[in-house]
Amino acid sequence: MPDASRARPETRRGPSIADVAKVAGVSAQTVSRVSNEKTNVDPATRDRVLAAMHTVGYKPNRAARALRTGRFRSIGVITFTLSTFGNMRTLDAITTAAADADHTVTVIRIPDPTTGNVSGAYRRLSEQAVDGVIIIFEAHLLDRAEISLPADQPVVIIDSNAGDGFTIVDTDQAQGARQATEHLLGLGHRTVWHIAGPDTSFSGLHRARAWAATLREHGITPPPAFQGDWTTDSGYRIGTEIAARGDITAVFAANDQMALGAMQAFHEAGLAIPGDISIVGFDDMEESKAFWPPLTTIRQDFAEVGRLCIEKLMHEIETKTPEPGRSFVPTTLVVRKSTAPPGADAS
Amino acid sequence: MPDASRARPETRRGPSIADVAKVAGVSAQTVSRVSNEKTNVDPATRDRVLAAMHTVGYKPNRAARALRTGRFRSIGVITFTLSTFGNMRTLDAITTAAADADHTVTVIRIPDPTTGNVSGAYRRLSEQAVDGVIIIFEAHLLDRAEISLPADQPVVIIDSNAGDGFTIVDTDQAQGARQATEHLLGLGHRTVWHIAGPDTSFSGLHRARAWAATLREHGITPPPAFQGDWTTDSGYRIGTEIAARGDITAVFAANDQMALGAMQAFHEAGLAIPGDISIVGFDDMEESKAFWPPLTTIRQDFAEVGRLCIEKLMHEIETKTPEPGRSFVPTTLVVRKSTAPPGADAS
DNA sequence: GTGAAAGCGCTAACAC
DNA sequence: GTGTTAGCGCTTTCAC
Known about the structure:
The structure is a homodimer. The first copy, chain A, is an alpha/beta fold. Chain A has eleven helices and twelve strands. The longest helix of chain A has 18 residues, at 302-319. Chain A is elongated, with a radius of gyration of 27 Å. Chain A starts with 16 loop residues before the first helix and ends in a 13-residue tail after the last strand. Strand 2 of chain A pairs antiparallel with strand 2 (104-109) of chain B, so a sheet runs across the interface.
C-alpha cells in the first residue's frame, strides 16, 4: 500500500539556475558560467555560486541545455541483439570510450533486422536526442540504400560490407579467416572444412569468402561450407554430420560457440580432439580457453573496435564534416589445444 | 581528405514545428496536436499536416519536448560491467521492455564500484536526462547509505541486499543455491563443496549463505568455501586444488564460468565427470549445454528480471509515488550430464 | 476543431 | 568579470 504522504508533488521541478542566482546574489549568466566551468569568473564569486548551488541542490537541466546548444552529449547505438558475445563486448567498449569523452550511450535494440525497424529506430534516435549514431550490423538482409541515413547526422557503421560514403569500423574478418585456415594448413591438413555463420551475416560471409580464397591460393578446391547460425546448437548438429563422415580432419568454425557445439558432437562420437580432428574458432570468448580441449581461435579486439568508433564519431561531431572511410582492426591467432597435425597422438 | 563542400552548415537545425505549420497553412499548435496523436484534429487537417511534415522532413525535437513536459522518455541504467553474462542478459531484457514502453535506455558504465563513482554516475544521470534509473549492483563494497539517491527520482535496484525503502528486483539467489545443493545431496553425496563468488558480490554472498544453510538443514557442517572471482581462471585454480585433495565428490560453483574452469582442471587431473566428481553451475549460459560434459546448472530468468524492473519503474514514473518492496524471480534446476550419484559409472 | 500567447531552463551575443 | 536580452522548439492554457 503506497503511502500517500510520500507521493512526489506533481509540479515539483528541480531548482533552476535562477534560484541559484537569487541565493548567490548574482545573475543567471554567472551561474551558467560557473556551471560550465568557464574561466572568466572571479574566484570569490565562483565559490559563492558553488555554495548556493549546493544549498538549493541545483542540477543542470539537460533538456534546456540541449535545446540551447543543439548538443546532447549522448551517442546512440542501434543493434539487433545484445546477446552475442561480440556485440556485448563492442557495446562495453563503446560505453567506456564514450564515458571518457563525457558522453552517455543510448541503446536501441531492434527485434528484427528489417528495413522498417532500422529506419524506425534510426528515426527515433535522430529526433535529435543524440549527437551521433553507431550502427552494429550483426546480421541483416537489407539493402543499405533503403535505410535513409540522414546526411546531417554523424554515423559510424560496424560492418565491413557497408557501401562507400559511410564511416566504417570493423574487425578484419578476412585476416582472421585467413589466419585460421593457414594455421590448419600449416599443421599439414590436406584441406579445411568450414562451419559458416548464417548467410544473412556479412561478417559470416566475409569469413567464409576468405576461408575459400585462402584454400584456393594453396591450390585446394574449397569443399562446400556447412551452414550454421552462430549457435552452439547449430555447431552440434553440423559436428554430428562431420563426425559421421569420418574423412574430415580440420574444421574452421566461424565463431567459438559453433566450435564448442561441434566439439561436443565430436566427443560424443568418440573422436579425439585434436588427435582425430582439429578445430579452430573465431572470437576468443572469455570461456574458450577453458573449453575441453582449450580452443584454438581467432581473437577479435572488440575494445579497439569500440574505441575507434567513438573516436571517429566524436571527430565527425566536432568538425561537423563526414569523413567516410574504412578502418579494419587486426585479429590474432591464439593457438591452444584443439589443433594438431593430422593423425597426431591423441594424448 | 575531407571534401569541404560536404561540411555540414554550422547553424543547420532540422525543420521545426513552425516550418510545418507554414507549409500546411495551420498553426503550430495544430502541428503539435498531430505530432502527439491527439484526437481533436479534423482528419483532413491531419492529412495536410502529415503531408507537410513529410515534405519538410520534420522530426520532433526531443530536447524541446522534454524541456516542456519534464519527461524524457528515457530510462538510465547504471552498471559496473557489461561483460558478465548476467548483466548483459539483464540489459538486453531491459532494453526490450523499455522499447515496448516506448522509452530508450541510457547506459552509464562505472569503472569501479566505489561510492564516488556511483554517486557521480547517478548525479550525471539525474540531471533530468532520464525519467528513472535502474542500478545493477553486480558487485560492490559500498555502504548504500553513502550513495545519495535523490528521493525525487524513481529508482529500481537489482540486488537483493539493498536496504528497505528501495524498489528491488532480483533473482531468487537463495532458491537457486538451495536447488543446486539439494540436487547433489539427493544424488547421495555426503556433502557439497562450494566455489563462491567474490565476497564483494551480494549475489555471491547470498548463494554461499543458502548453500551453507541447506547443508546445515541436512545435519551437515558446511566445509569452508573456496573463494573465486567469477572467472574461469579462478574456477580452474580452485578446481586444481579440489582435484589434488581427492576426497571431494560434489561441487556447487556460484556461476557457470567457474564451473567450466573447474571442469577443465578435473579433466587435466584425469578425474571423470560425473563419475569421480559431480558439479553444478549457476546461470545457465548459452554455452553450458555444450560444455563437456553438458553442465547441470541453475537457470536464471534474466528476461523476467529486466521486464519486472521496467514494469516497476514505469509504474513509479507514472504515479510519481515510490513503492518500495522486493520482487524475487524464481530459478530452475536444469539437470544435464555433469552430476550423478557418487561413484557412478563414468561412462 | 483551431489559434494566440506564454514560458519551460538554459546559453550566445552583446553591453558595460 | 558580470549583467541584460533574446530565443532555442515545444506544449499548456485559454480563447474562440
